[in-house]
Amino acid sequence: MRILVVGSGGREHAICYTLRAAENPPEVFVAPGNAGTAAIAHNIDIEATDISGLLTFVEEMSVDLTIVGPEQPLVLGLADALRSRGFAVVGPSAAAAQLEGSKVFAKDFMKRNAIPTAIYRSFTSHELDAAVSFIRALGAPVVVKASGLAAGKGAIVCDTTDEAEETARMMLVDDRFGEAGREIVVEEFMRGEEASVFALCDGSSYVLLSPAQDHKRVGDSDTGPNTGGMGAYAPAPVVDAALLARVEVEIIRPTVSGLANEGIPYNGFLYVGLMIEDGNPRVVEYNCRLGDPEAQVLLPLLNEDFRNLMQATASGSLKEKGPISLRPDSAACVVLCSGGYPGPYAMGFPISGLEEAAQVDGAQVFHAGTSVADDRVVTSGGRVLGVTATGDSLEQALARAYSAAGKISFEGMFFRHDIGRKGLERLLPA
Ligand code: AMP
Ligand code: GLY
Prior knowledge:
Layout: E1 2-7, H1 10-20, E2 27-32, H2 35-38, E3 42-43, H3 51-61, E4 65-68, H4 71-75, H5 78-84, E5 88-90, H6 94-101, H7 103-112, E6 120-124, H8 128-138, E7 142-146, E8 155-158, H9 161-172, E9 183-188, E10 193-202, E11 206-208, E12 213-214, E13 217-219, E14 223-226, E15 231-234, H10 241-261, E16 267-277, E17 280-287, H11 294-298, H12 306-314, H13 318-321, E18 330-337, H14 354-359, E19 363-367, E20 370-373, E21 376-379, E22 383-391, H15 394-405, H16 421-427
Parallel strand pairs: 1-2, 1-4, 2-3, 4-5
Antiparallel strand pairs: 6-9, 7-8, 7-9, 10-11, 10-16, 12-15, 13-14, 15-18, 16-17, 18-22, 19-22, 20-21
The chain binds adenosine monophosphate and glycine.
């Protein structure tokens, strides 16, 4: 069996690793992949956004199943192109991927379906005055978001209404966010603790994975600018069983059935970013894919044959497969970054200690921004490695991940030292 994985991050390495760890592993191709995927699968030189290149590859190689990692190819219609030609794929249609690709679509969808989220209004380029009035009516802090895809940089939390007005002007009038910012969402600032819940959907049914928590800010104690994610752990105790049950009834179920009722059934991983305030969950955002680094802690907790799970998702038969089985363990991931990230950084530095790190009990190093030069693994991105470990408690998983991270070095390397702290505090006896 041949599987194509689309993408090149830690998420895609984790997907390849999980597929290849099975007893009878499939042949796995990755487009374009990284140094980690090259060691366990075939990297192919096609960009994740090259829809026609990917389509030709799938046709020529008779690929049996395609798993799409990142959002751009989904928003560009890769899943539709494959499905309409009869190829099996895990990933939503372009229409359903609007949940991530258009914040205006996502907010309007939540309103239509009574899914709890922040109060908002949307505005187009010639509606700056109306946006300013709404910003003043909401008061600070207030959030201004470019509606389109902006590589995680399109949501600006503004501490003053002046800053919010300026941000709205930059997006709508000055075109500083390009096409993505020609329509904006202005919304109420939500207080509370963030967590994410993931569902794997096959168009009509779904299964839930472990709730997880990411660490978006670059610095310890959630300081500094936003990043793609500096580390994650799962399960996240802030979403206990009772809260997860509420999230399922109030958010996941109406999302999946709402999309199906609107004629755009959702197939693939659905990522729901939540804000939890006084025990009440509201949606911050939807993503139409697995999170990264969240995938790196979710996949090791699956007690399932991942290939079967992916095939059942693609063929719409998750229900027949029955409930998903998760290991009763914890997983933690610490992301090792290039000095300067999320700003500009240098690349091409050799990485040492990868083998030593992999010797740590329960540890697995997932590659993100890495490539091979002169037979050495070198840095080639901002987020370089996701050092992941499982353990029978969150404490053990974190200790193992940090122990493995300590074996690795490259010039300029840095990481957060407080991954999982909120989870540990919550688990302390009262
Ligand atoms: P988004 O691009 O919508 O995922 O937003 C990025 C980050 O901005 C989120 O993970 C939150 O930390 C923050 N954020 C977005 N919207 C809100 C909101 N309404 N209230 C508070 N924080 C928000
Ligand atoms: N870790 C956040 C994301 O994947 O969007």
